[in-house]
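Listing S7. Sequence submitted for prediction.
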Amino acid sequence: MAEMRLVVAGAAGRMGQALVRAIAETPGTTLAGAFERPGSPSIGADAGVLAGVGENGVVIGDDPLPLIARADGVLDFTAPAASVETAGLAAQARIVHVIGTTGMGAGDEERLLAAARHAVIVRSGNMSLGVNLLAVLVEQAARALADFDVEIMEMHHRHKVDAPSGTALMLGEAAAAARNVRLGEHAVRVRDGHTGPRPDGAIGFATLRGGSVVGDHTVTLAGEGERVVLAHLAQDRSIFARGALKAALWARGRKPGLYSMRDVLGLPA
């Protein structure tokens, strides 16, 4: 099979550069295009030079349409509004769209589902193998320890703009699914002042921001006299980029639809 031609959205960002490097290192893939938001100072730069892998002749543009039209897939760790627009373009081209963007709202979700009727979309709050395995373990533990309190703590770098992180919410969804409840009805995201006792069945979130932390997630299940602590520490963005490449290669040739990293990795749904 010919190499998979991939386009990187947000190619000048930290994750965009990691994706460009991962494509250069991954057999069976090639960088077919790269784009940034209009007005970005990186427009016109060589994507390979910017990512530190040397000149590759792929110039960063600001118009994704012609790039996506001749690609097999697009890798997208940008912002909700941008990802939704790119999903529409991927649907028109009927190609693979791998989305690692977090912070989407209900309206964004509806538009992704509409795009997934024509595009093969793989979307996850976290693309790493370890985190997706952690979600399975959280679900199993929350089911087995049904009377334990669930608390989720996450820490990211100072530049992250959404909270809680998409990964923390993914872990919360895993715990909620195990207990057959809706996360939105049981999540406690803020505690301040006189809060009173902890509500039964609450799934708590704590958010930390600072420095250059790539991503730390800890799920604590607290019972009477004991705690179970499950954690994942991301030390390098390359783990997310490698996961995205694995997702893209897995998705190639599949029927249109909305998939998750659990599908890609063959983990229990």
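Caption to Listing S7: primary sequence and predicted structure tokens for the chain studied. The chain is about 35% helix and 25% strand. The chain has a mean pLDDT of 95.
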